[in-house]
Amino acid sequence: MISTIVYTLNILITVAVVVNLLYSGARPTKTLGWLLVVFLLPIFGVVAYLIFGLNRRKYKFSRIKDAERVRDYFKKRDNFYEDYLSNRIYLNNESDIHRKLLHLISKNAQFLPFPGNAVKILRNGPDTFESIFAALEKAEKFIHVQYYIFEEGELTEKMLEIFERKFKEGVEIRLLFDGVGSQALSNKFLRRFKNLGGFYCCFLPIANLRPTFTLNYRNHRKIIVIDGKIGFTGGINVTDKYVKEGASPLGIWHDMHIRLEGPVVNNLNAIFVTDWFFATNDNDNEDLLQPAYFPKVESAGDSLVQIVSSGPDSNFPNIQQSYFSLINQADDYVYITNPYVIPGDAILTALQTAALSDIDVRIIIPEISDSIVVKWGVRSYFEDLLRAGVRIFMYPEKFLHNKTIVVDDEIGSVGTANFDIRSFEQNFEVNALIYNEKIAEELKSYFLEDMKTCREFSLEEYLNRPWYHKLLEGLAKIFSPIL
Question: Given this model, what pLDDT does residue 209 score?
Answer without folding.
Answer: 47
